[in-house]
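Long-time lurker, finally posting.

We've been working with Holin (Lactobacillus helveticus) and I want a structural starting point before designing mutants. I don't trust myself to interpret raw outputs, so I'm hoping someone here can both generate the structure tokens and explain anything notable. Sequence follows.
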Amino acid sequence: MHDIGSLSQAIMPYAAAILTVFLSYRRGSKEDENDRLAKRNKTLTERIDQLTRENDKLRKELDKK
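Top reply, 14 upvotes:
Generated this for you. Predicted structure of Holin:
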């Protein structure tokens, strides 16, 4: 029984370190994905605004004819 206690005491710091790295990586991956999606959202919003302006311009030209 003493050997199991010593073994768990020796392993626990390494297990905690591995768990910490894993959780940090998972959190970082989610943040990276959020950043990527935010950038994509911004790009698409800018494109929608551009197309809306072009559409308005073309409608005005069409109305003049």
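Before you design anything, note these points.
The helical segments are 2-64.
The two ends are 94 Å apart (CA to CA).
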